[in-house]
Amino acid sequence: MRNIKYWIWFTQAIGYCTCSAKQITSLYDSIEEFYLGGEQEWRLSGLFSNTEISKLSKTDLSVADEIITKCTKLGYDMITLDDSDYPQCLKAIDDPPAVLYVWGMLPDIDNRLSIAVIGTRRASRYGSSSSYQFAYNLASVGVTIVSGGALGVDCASHYGTLAADGVAICVLGCGINYDYLKENAKMRSDITSKGAVISEYPPDCEPLAFHFPQRNRIISALSDGILLIEASAKSGSLITVNLALEQDINKKIFALAGTNDPRFDGSNELIKDNVAALVTDYKDILNSYSDLYATTELEPSAMPDGEIIDVIPVKGSAPKKINNYDVNNLSEIPVHNHNVELSKDESTVYYAITAEPIHIDKISEITNLPVSKLLAVLTMLEIKGLIMCVQGRSYKLK
Hints:
The structure is a single chain. This protein is α/β, with parallel strands linked by helices and 398 residues long. The chain is built from 16 helices and 14 strands. The chain has helices at residues 4-14, 20-27, 31-45, 50-58, 62-74, 88-91, 125-140, 153-163, 185-191, 211-221, 237-247, 265-272, 282-286, 344-350, 360-367, 371-383; strands at 77-80, 99-104, 114-119, 144-147, 168-171, 196-199, 225-230, 252-256, 277-279, 321-322, 325-326, 358-359, 387-390, 394-397. The strands form 3 sheets. A 9-stranded mixed sheet has the order 1-2-6-5-4-3-7-8-9, sandwiched between helices. Strands 12-14-13 form a 3-stranded antiparallel sheet. The N and C termini lie far apart (59 Å). The model is unreliable at 304-333 (pLDDT under 50).
Protein backbone atom coordinates (compact mmCIF):
# COMPACT_ATOMS: atom_id res chain seq x y z
CA MET A 1 0.00 0.00 0.00
CA ARG A 2 2.89 2.38 0.69
CA ASN A 3 3.73 2.46 -3.02
CA ILE A 4 0.39 4.02 -3.97
CA LYS A 5 1.50 7.60 -3.41
CA TYR A 6 4.64 7.11 -5.52
CA TRP A 7 2.70 5.65 -8.44
CA ILE A 8 0.17 8.48 -8.25
CA TRP A 9 3.04 10.96 -8.14
CA PHE A 10 4.47 9.28 -11.23
CA THR A 11 1.21 9.57 -13.21
CA GLN A 12 0.79 13.20 -12.21
CA ALA A 13 4.27 13.93 -13.54
CA ILE A 14 4.46 11.75 -16.66
CA GLY A 15 0.80 11.19 -17.50
CA TYR A 16 -1.20 8.11 -18.47
CA CYS A 17 -0.97 5.44 -21.15
CA THR A 18 2.81 5.18 -21.01
CA CYS A 19 5.11 2.19 -21.38
CA SER A 20 7.57 3.59 -18.84
CA ALA A 21 5.46 2.52 -15.83
CA LYS A 22 5.85 -1.16 -16.74
CA GLN A 23 9.53 -0.65 -17.56
CA ILE A 24 10.13 0.75 -14.08
CA THR A 25 8.83 -2.48 -12.54
CA SER A 26 11.45 -4.46 -14.45
CA LEU A 27 14.34 -2.15 -13.53
CA TYR A 28 13.64 -1.38 -9.88
CA ASP A 29 12.54 -3.32 -6.84
CA SER A 30 9.87 -0.73 -6.18
CA ILE A 31 8.53 2.60 -7.40
CA GLU A 32 9.70 4.05 -4.06
CA GLU A 33 13.28 3.11 -4.94
CA PHE A 34 12.84 4.85 -8.28
CA TYR A 35 11.47 7.97 -6.57
CA LEU A 36 14.26 8.13 -4.00
CA GLY A 37 16.88 7.72 -6.72
CA GLY A 38 16.26 11.27 -7.82
CA GLU A 39 17.15 13.04 -11.03
CA GLN A 40 20.48 11.29 -11.53
CA GLU A 41 18.86 7.85 -11.32
CA TRP A 42 16.02 8.91 -13.61
CA ARG A 43 18.55 9.90 -16.27
CA LEU A 44 20.51 6.70 -15.87
CA SER A 45 17.36 4.64 -16.40
CA GLY A 46 17.26 5.80 -20.01
CA LEU A 47 13.46 5.83 -19.94
CA PHE A 48 12.74 9.54 -19.99
CA SER A 49 13.34 12.63 -22.07
CA ASN A 50 14.74 15.81 -20.56
CA THR A 51 11.25 17.27 -20.52
CA GLU A 52 9.88 14.27 -18.62
CA ILE A 53 12.73 14.38 -16.11
CA SER A 54 11.96 18.04 -15.52
CA LYS A 55 8.32 17.14 -14.85
CA LEU A 56 9.36 14.43 -12.39
CA SER A 57 11.55 16.94 -10.55
CA LYS A 58 8.87 19.60 -10.39
CA THR A 59 5.99 17.35 -9.26
CA ASP A 60 5.65 17.32 -5.49
CA LEU A 61 4.68 14.15 -3.65
CA SER A 62 1.96 16.09 -1.85
CA VAL A 63 -0.20 15.99 -5.00
CA ALA A 64 -0.50 12.25 -4.46
CA ASP A 65 -1.51 12.69 -0.83
CA GLU A 66 -4.37 14.96 -1.94
CA ILE A 67 -5.65 12.37 -4.41
CA ILE A 68 -5.42 9.57 -1.84
CA THR A 69 -7.40 11.67 0.65
CA LYS A 70 -10.05 12.36 -2.00
CA CYS A 71 -10.35 8.66 -2.92
CA THR A 72 -10.66 7.67 0.73
CA LYS A 73 -13.45 10.20 1.18
CA LEU A 74 -15.28 8.92 -1.93
CA GLY A 75 -14.81 5.27 -1.02
CA TYR A 76 -12.66 4.39 -4.05
CA ASP A 77 -9.98 1.72 -3.96
CA MET A 78 -6.61 2.26 -5.61
CA ILE A 79 -4.79 -0.67 -7.22
CA THR A 80 -1.26 -0.17 -8.49
CA LEU A 81 0.76 -1.99 -11.10
CA ASP A 82 2.82 -3.83 -8.47
CA ASP A 83 -0.15 -4.94 -6.34
CA SER A 84 -0.84 -8.68 -6.14
CA ASP A 85 -4.51 -8.14 -7.05
CA TYR A 86 -3.74 -6.06 -10.15
CA PRO A 87 -5.29 -7.91 -13.16
CA GLN A 88 -2.62 -9.98 -14.90
CA CYS A 89 -4.40 -9.58 -18.25
CA LEU A 90 -3.98 -5.82 -17.92
CA LYS A 91 -0.40 -6.05 -16.69
CA ALA A 92 0.46 -8.07 -19.81
CA ILE A 93 0.02 -5.15 -22.23
CA ASP A 94 2.85 -2.74 -23.04
CA ASP A 95 1.22 0.29 -21.44
CA PRO A 96 -0.83 -0.83 -18.42
CA PRO A 97 -2.22 1.87 -16.12
CA ALA A 98 0.13 2.58 -13.23
CA VAL A 99 -2.91 3.13 -11.02
CA LEU A 100 -6.49 1.87 -11.27
CA TYR A 101 -9.15 3.78 -9.36
CA VAL A 102 -11.97 1.41 -8.48
CA TRP A 103 -15.51 2.06 -7.29
CA GLY A 104 -17.22 -1.17 -6.32
CA MET A 105 -15.87 -4.71 -6.52
CA LEU A 106 -13.41 -5.51 -9.27
CA PRO A 107 -14.10 -9.16 -10.20
CA ASP A 108 -11.37 -11.78 -10.54
CA ILE A 109 -11.12 -10.95 -14.20
CA ASP A 110 -8.18 -13.31 -14.80
CA ASN A 111 -10.24 -16.34 -13.80
CA ARG A 112 -13.64 -15.72 -15.39
CA LEU A 113 -14.72 -15.26 -18.98
CA SER A 114 -15.14 -11.61 -19.89
CA ILE A 115 -16.56 -10.12 -23.08
CA ALA A 116 -16.39 -6.46 -24.09
CA VAL A 117 -19.56 -5.21 -25.77
CA ILE A 118 -18.81 -2.10 -27.81
CA GLY A 119 -20.30 0.04 -30.58
CA THR A 120 -21.55 3.44 -31.61
CA ARG A 121 -22.95 6.10 -29.32
CA ARG A 122 -25.67 6.79 -31.93
CA ALA A 123 -27.00 3.27 -31.90
CA SER A 124 -29.98 2.20 -33.97
CA ARG A 125 -32.90 0.44 -32.36
CA TYR A 126 -31.56 -2.86 -33.66
CA GLY A 127 -28.08 -2.14 -32.33
CA SER A 128 -29.22 -1.11 -28.87
CA SER A 129 -31.68 -3.97 -28.44
CA SER A 130 -29.06 -6.47 -29.66
CA SER A 131 -26.49 -5.08 -27.24
CA TYR A 132 -28.96 -5.41 -24.38
CA GLN A 133 -29.93 -8.97 -25.30
CA PHE A 134 -26.38 -10.24 -25.81
CA ALA A 135 -25.24 -8.72 -22.52
CA TYR A 136 -28.30 -10.01 -20.69
CA ASN A 137 -27.87 -13.57 -21.93
CA LEU A 138 -24.11 -13.69 -21.43
CA ALA A 139 -24.31 -12.15 -17.96
CA SER A 140 -27.07 -14.62 -17.02
CA VAL A 141 -24.65 -17.52 -17.49
CA GLY A 142 -21.78 -15.92 -15.59
CA VAL A 143 -19.85 -13.93 -18.19
CA THR A 144 -18.44 -10.58 -17.05
CA ILE A 145 -19.49 -7.78 -19.40
CA VAL A 146 -17.02 -4.96 -20.02
CA SER A 147 -17.91 -1.66 -21.68
CA GLY A 148 -17.26 2.06 -21.55
CA GLY A 149 -20.32 3.68 -19.99
CA ALA A 150 -21.10 5.89 -23.00
CA LEU A 151 -24.47 6.40 -24.64
CA GLY A 152 -25.78 3.92 -27.19
CA VAL A 153 -24.31 0.42 -27.31
CA ASP A 154 -22.25 0.81 -24.12
CA CYS A 155 -25.27 1.78 -22.03
CA ALA A 156 -27.44 -0.91 -23.52
CA SER A 157 -24.91 -3.58 -22.57
CA HIS A 158 -24.63 -2.26 -19.02
CA TYR A 159 -28.42 -2.16 -18.64
CA GLY A 160 -28.74 -5.70 -19.98
CA THR A 161 -26.12 -6.90 -17.52
CA LEU A 162 -27.87 -5.20 -14.61
CA ALA A 163 -31.25 -6.62 -15.62
CA ALA A 164 -29.69 -10.10 -15.54
CA ASP A 165 -28.19 -9.39 -12.11
CA GLY A 166 -24.79 -9.96 -13.69
CA VAL A 167 -21.30 -8.58 -13.23
CA ALA A 168 -20.27 -5.51 -15.22
CA ILE A 169 -17.07 -3.50 -15.49
CA CYS A 170 -17.53 0.07 -16.67
CA VAL A 171 -14.26 1.69 -17.82
CA LEU A 172 -14.44 5.49 -17.83
CA GLY A 173 -12.40 8.08 -19.72
CA CYS A 174 -12.52 10.52 -16.81
CA GLY A 175 -12.42 10.55 -13.02
CA ILE A 176 -15.05 8.26 -11.53
CA ASN A 177 -16.70 11.10 -9.64
CA TYR A 178 -16.80 13.44 -12.64
CA ASP A 179 -20.37 14.35 -13.57
CA TYR A 180 -20.13 12.66 -16.97
CA LEU A 181 -23.51 11.77 -18.51
CA LYS A 182 -25.90 12.49 -15.63
CA GLU A 183 -28.42 10.19 -17.30
CA ASN A 184 -26.19 7.24 -16.43
CA ALA A 185 -25.41 8.14 -12.81
CA LYS A 186 -27.79 5.53 -11.38
CA MET A 187 -26.54 2.92 -13.82
CA ARG A 188 -22.94 3.45 -12.69
CA SER A 189 -23.98 3.25 -9.06
CA ASP A 190 -25.92 0.03 -9.65
CA ILE A 191 -22.94 -1.57 -11.39
CA THR A 192 -20.90 -1.28 -8.19
CA SER A 193 -23.21 -3.64 -6.28
CA LYS A 194 -21.65 -6.67 -8.01
CA GLY A 195 -19.09 -5.20 -10.39
CA ALA A 196 -16.96 -2.10 -10.68
CA VAL A 197 -16.63 1.31 -12.28
CA ILE A 198 -12.94 1.90 -12.94
CA SER A 199 -10.63 4.53 -14.40
CA GLU A 200 -6.93 5.25 -14.69
CA TYR A 201 -7.76 8.90 -14.17
CA PRO A 202 -7.98 10.28 -10.61
CA PRO A 203 -11.08 11.96 -9.13
CA ASP A 204 -12.19 15.22 -10.77
CA CYS A 205 -10.26 14.49 -13.98
CA GLU A 206 -12.39 15.72 -16.88
CA PRO A 207 -13.26 13.59 -19.95
CA LEU A 208 -10.84 14.97 -22.53
CA ALA A 209 -11.20 13.72 -26.11
CA PHE A 210 -7.91 11.78 -26.16
CA HIS A 211 -8.82 9.94 -22.95
CA PHE A 212 -11.35 7.74 -24.73
CA PRO A 213 -8.95 6.08 -27.21
CA GLN A 214 -6.59 5.56 -24.24
CA ARG A 215 -9.46 4.08 -22.24
CA ASN A 216 -10.16 1.58 -25.03
CA ARG A 217 -6.88 -0.28 -24.46
CA ILE A 218 -8.09 -1.10 -20.92
CA ILE A 219 -11.44 -2.38 -22.19
CA SER A 220 -9.75 -4.67 -24.70
CA ALA A 221 -7.10 -5.89 -22.24
CA LEU A 222 -9.68 -6.84 -19.61
CA SER A 223 -11.67 -8.88 -22.13
CA ASP A 224 -11.20 -12.39 -23.49
CA GLY A 225 -13.22 -11.40 -26.53
CA ILE A 226 -14.67 -8.30 -28.19
CA LEU A 227 -18.27 -8.16 -29.41
CA LEU A 228 -18.78 -5.34 -31.89
CA ILE A 229 -22.50 -4.58 -32.09
CA GLU A 230 -22.74 -1.62 -34.43
CA ALA A 231 -19.97 0.51 -35.91
CA SER A 232 -19.67 2.76 -38.93
CA ALA A 233 -16.60 2.79 -41.13
CA LYS A 234 -15.04 5.55 -38.99
CA SER A 235 -16.31 4.43 -35.60
CA GLY A 236 -14.05 4.81 -32.58
CA SER A 237 -15.05 1.26 -31.63
CA LEU A 238 -12.76 -0.01 -34.39
CA ILE A 239 -9.88 1.42 -32.34
CA THR A 240 -10.74 -1.03 -29.58
CA VAL A 241 -10.73 -3.92 -32.05
CA ASN A 242 -7.34 -2.90 -33.42
CA LEU A 243 -5.94 -2.51 -29.91
CA ALA A 244 -7.23 -5.95 -28.98
CA LEU A 245 -5.46 -7.52 -31.95
CA GLU A 246 -2.25 -5.64 -31.16
CA GLN A 247 -2.37 -6.83 -27.57
CA ASP A 248 -3.10 -10.44 -28.51
CA ILE A 249 -3.29 -11.61 -32.10
CA ASN A 250 -5.34 -14.59 -30.91
CA LYS A 251 -7.93 -12.52 -29.07
CA LYS A 252 -11.37 -13.37 -30.41
CA ILE A 253 -13.37 -10.71 -32.22
CA PHE A 254 -17.10 -11.10 -32.82
CA ALA A 255 -19.47 -8.87 -34.77
CA LEU A 256 -23.20 -8.74 -35.17
CA ALA A 257 -24.25 -8.85 -38.81
CA GLY A 258 -25.91 -5.55 -39.65
CA THR A 259 -28.14 -4.12 -42.32
CA ASN A 260 -27.11 -1.86 -45.18
CA ASP A 261 -27.44 1.06 -42.78
CA PRO A 262 -24.11 2.99 -42.90
CA ARG A 263 -23.96 2.65 -39.12
CA PHE A 264 -22.99 -1.01 -39.67
CA ASP A 265 -20.37 -0.48 -42.39
CA GLY A 266 -17.43 -0.93 -40.03
CA SER A 267 -18.67 -4.10 -38.34
CA ASN A 268 -19.84 -5.62 -41.64
CA GLU A 269 -16.42 -4.98 -43.16
CA LEU A 270 -14.69 -6.83 -40.30
CA ILE A 271 -16.91 -9.83 -40.96
CA LYS A 272 -16.21 -9.76 -44.70
CA ASP A 273 -12.46 -9.51 -44.05
CA ASN A 274 -12.59 -12.47 -41.64
CA VAL A 275 -11.30 -10.29 -38.82
CA ALA A 276 -14.49 -10.83 -36.83
CA ALA A 277 -16.63 -13.94 -36.51
CA LEU A 278 -20.27 -13.36 -37.38
CA VAL A 279 -22.62 -13.97 -34.44
CA THR A 280 -26.39 -14.04 -34.23
CA ASP A 281 -26.82 -15.54 -30.77
CA TYR A 282 -24.96 -15.44 -27.45
CA LYS A 283 -24.18 -19.16 -27.77
CA ASP A 284 -22.11 -18.39 -30.86
CA ILE A 285 -19.74 -16.62 -28.47
CA LEU A 286 -19.81 -19.30 -25.78
CA ASN A 287 -19.10 -21.98 -28.40
CA SER A 288 -15.78 -20.25 -29.02
CA TYR A 289 -14.88 -20.96 -25.40
CA SER A 290 -16.12 -24.56 -25.33
CA ASP A 291 -13.35 -25.51 -22.92
CA LEU A 292 -15.02 -23.22 -20.37
CA TYR A 293 -18.71 -23.70 -21.14
CA ALA A 294 -20.96 -26.53 -22.21
CA THR A 295 -23.42 -24.34 -24.06
CA THR A 296 -26.11 -26.99 -24.44
CA GLU A 297 -26.57 -26.90 -20.68
CA LEU A 298 -26.65 -23.14 -20.33
CA GLU A 299 -29.90 -21.26 -20.66
CA PRO A 300 -30.15 -17.68 -19.43
CA SER A 301 -33.09 -16.50 -17.36
CA ALA A 302 -35.94 -15.21 -19.50
CA MET A 303 -36.29 -11.49 -20.04
CA PRO A 304 -39.65 -10.04 -18.97
CA ASP A 305 -42.13 -10.05 -21.84
CA GLY A 306 -42.37 -6.79 -23.72
CA GLU A 307 -39.59 -5.16 -21.75
CA ILE A 308 -36.49 -4.67 -23.83
CA ILE A 309 -34.07 -1.84 -24.24
CA ASP A 310 -33.95 0.56 -27.17
CA VAL A 311 -31.87 3.60 -27.96
CA ILE A 312 -30.60 5.14 -24.73
CA PRO A 313 -31.83 8.75 -24.52
CA VAL A 314 -29.50 11.57 -25.41
CA LYS A 315 -28.74 14.40 -23.01
CA GLY A 316 -31.75 16.33 -21.85
CA SER A 317 -34.36 13.81 -22.96
CA ALA A 318 -37.00 12.35 -20.68
CA PRO A 319 -36.93 8.55 -21.04
CA LYS A 320 -39.56 6.16 -19.83
CA LYS A 321 -38.92 3.80 -16.95
CA ILE A 322 -38.73 0.03 -17.43
CA ASN A 323 -37.21 -2.30 -14.82
CA ASN A 324 -36.11 0.84 -12.93
CA TYR A 325 -33.72 1.80 -15.73
CA ASP A 326 -33.96 4.59 -18.29
CA VAL A 327 -35.06 2.77 -21.42
CA ASN A 328 -37.62 3.24 -24.16
CA ASN A 329 -40.37 0.90 -25.30
CA LEU A 330 -39.52 -0.58 -28.69
CA SER A 331 -43.11 -0.97 -29.79
CA GLU A 332 -43.70 2.78 -29.83
CA ILE A 333 -40.64 3.73 -31.90
CA PRO A 334 -40.66 3.66 -35.71
CA VAL A 335 -37.89 1.66 -37.34
CA HIS A 336 -36.37 1.25 -40.79
CA ASN A 337 -38.26 -1.00 -43.18
CA HIS A 338 -35.71 -3.28 -44.85
CA ASN A 339 -38.22 -4.78 -47.29
CA VAL A 340 -38.53 -1.85 -49.68
CA GLU A 341 -36.70 -1.20 -52.93
CA LEU A 342 -34.65 1.99 -52.87
CA SER A 343 -32.18 3.65 -55.18
CA LYS A 344 -28.63 4.18 -53.92
CA ASP A 345 -29.32 7.80 -52.91
CA GLU A 346 -32.66 6.91 -51.36
CA SER A 347 -31.04 4.16 -49.28
CA THR A 348 -28.24 6.47 -48.14
CA VAL A 349 -30.69 9.15 -47.04
CA TYR A 350 -33.22 6.74 -45.54
CA TYR A 351 -30.71 5.13 -43.20
CA ALA A 352 -29.40 8.52 -42.12
CA ILE A 353 -32.86 9.34 -40.75
CA THR A 354 -33.90 8.04 -37.35
CA ALA A 355 -36.93 8.06 -35.07
CA GLU A 356 -35.81 11.44 -33.77
CA PRO A 357 -36.25 14.52 -36.04
CA ILE A 358 -33.10 15.42 -37.94
CA HIS A 359 -32.66 18.71 -39.81
CA ILE A 360 -32.12 18.69 -43.56
CA ASP A 361 -28.74 20.39 -43.15
CA LYS A 362 -27.57 17.58 -40.88
CA ILE A 363 -28.85 14.99 -43.35
CA SER A 364 -26.88 16.74 -46.09
CA GLU A 365 -23.77 16.65 -43.94
CA ILE A 366 -24.14 12.93 -43.16
CA THR A 367 -24.95 11.85 -46.72
CA ASN A 368 -22.68 14.30 -48.57
CA LEU A 369 -25.62 15.18 -50.83
CA PRO A 370 -26.33 18.83 -51.67
CA VAL A 371 -29.64 20.15 -50.34
CA SER A 372 -30.88 20.75 -53.90
CA LYS A 373 -30.55 17.03 -54.70
CA LEU A 374 -31.53 15.95 -51.21
CA LEU A 375 -34.97 17.58 -51.46
CA ALA A 376 -35.94 15.37 -54.38
CA VAL A 377 -34.81 12.22 -52.55
CA LEU A 378 -36.67 13.22 -49.38
CA THR A 379 -39.81 13.81 -51.40
CA MET A 380 -39.62 10.31 -52.89
CA LEU A 381 -39.16 8.79 -49.44
CA GLU A 382 -42.22 10.71 -48.24
CA ILE A 383 -44.25 9.47 -51.19
CA LYS A 384 -43.22 5.90 -50.35
CA GLY A 385 -44.50 6.46 -46.82
CA LEU A 386 -41.14 5.87 -45.17
CA ILE A 387 -40.44 9.27 -43.62
CA MET A 388 -42.32 12.40 -42.66
CA CYS A 389 -41.46 16.07 -42.56
CA VAL A 390 -41.85 17.82 -39.23
CA GLN A 391 -41.54 21.42 -38.18
CA GLY A 392 -38.42 23.32 -39.17
CA ARG A 393 -37.40 21.31 -42.25
CA SER A 394 -36.62 18.28 -40.15
CA TYR A 395 -37.45 14.67 -41.02
CA LYS A 396 -38.01 11.48 -39.07
CA LEU A 397 -39.06 7.91 -39.70
CA LYS A 398 -42.76 7.33 -40.17
